[in-house]
Design goal:
With 139 residues, this protein is α+β, with helices and mostly antiparallel strands. The chain is 40% helix and 20% strand. Bound molecules: adenosine-3',5'-cyclic-monophosphate.
Length: 139
């Protein structure tokens, strides 16, 4: 498996709860390298743009309100099988269903406030990285 890149977001609840350090430690322990990172406080419009694929879902309004409610940390991670590796570290979307020891099982409080986002495939990863970072900003 070649090295690949993925986008991750430590969401407002993760930043607010001061889980950032613990989460980054898990990335690095899992051989994922940080290639870019920035702290942002999204506007509602920016959150809606990022989650545009979910526009028709009944949770879209709550999700975009929440994602624009406080600072987030956005990172590009690189490593072998990075997309699946990150998704394994995150655990299921719903923390009640997340495997023991995963980031969401440890830190998330609900399916909405689920601490972390990770790209779900190579095409999405490319689009999501481009949403937040220019080519010059990714090492
Ligand atoms: P994420 O991996 O960022 O992708 C979409 C987000 O929508 C998801 O994490 C959750 O934060 C949120 N989400 C997904 N399903 C639901 C749901 N049923 N109710 C509320 N929020 C959801």
């Amino acid at each position: 498996m070649d090295s690949e890149r993925t986008l991750t977001i430590i969401k407002p609840d993760g930043v607010e709860q001061r889980n950032v350090g613990d989460i980054i430690k898990k990335f690095e322990e899992s051989q994922l390298r940080i290639k870019a990172a920035k702290m942002l406080h999204l506007t509602r419009e920016q959150a809606e743009g990022f989650y545009a694929v979910h526009r028709e879902r009944n949770f879209f309004n709550d999700l975009t309100r929440y994602m624009s409610s406080g600072p987030i940390l956005v990172l590009v991670l690189e490593g072998e099988n990075a997309i699946d590796r990150l998704r394994d570290l995150m655990g299921a979307t719903d923390p009640k269903k997340a495997a023991k020891g995963t980031i969401r099982q440890l830190y998330a409080t609900s399916i909405e406030k689920n601490v972390i986002h990770g790209s779900d495939g190579p095409v999405t990863a490319k689009t999501e990285i481009g949403y937040f970072f220019s080519a010059l900003e990714v090492l």
